[in-house]
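Subject: sequence -> structure tokens, single chain

Hey, anyone have a minute? Need the predicted structure for the following. Not urgent.
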Amino acid sequence: MDIKEVITVYDTDDYKNASYVRTTVFIEEQGFAYEFDETDYTADHAVIYINGEPAAAGRVFSEEGHEDMHIGRVCVMKKFRGTGIGARVMSVLEKVAAEKGATGVFLSAQLTAAGFYERLGYEQYGDVYPDEGVPHIAMKKKFQ
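Reply:
Had a minute. Here:
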């Protein structure tokens, strides 16, 4: 299996492939309506390819008033779930955050995915809240 990790920015072919993964997972599979926003213009986007096919994506960005960076829109194509590629895209995004000087990262996890993030060292904080009707929980991880 040939795996390629790419960090990209808005309006590139790799960004378009990340958008394809996000559209497939969040809009077509899960029914979210508001997948793309102005943050896409400034975020760093990760795309993981398996044998040349876009398999996973996510983004990382700074938020004003936070020393930690925000990871979001993490998704894996259905046929690649359970292969460890989700953990790999998270590792790539965390590395980008650390290289930019962040002391940690935070994210908004679908409640059904909280266990995945906990296995990667994330801790829940705050209360469960709805995002487009889907229960989410805030999670964070400090770098060592």
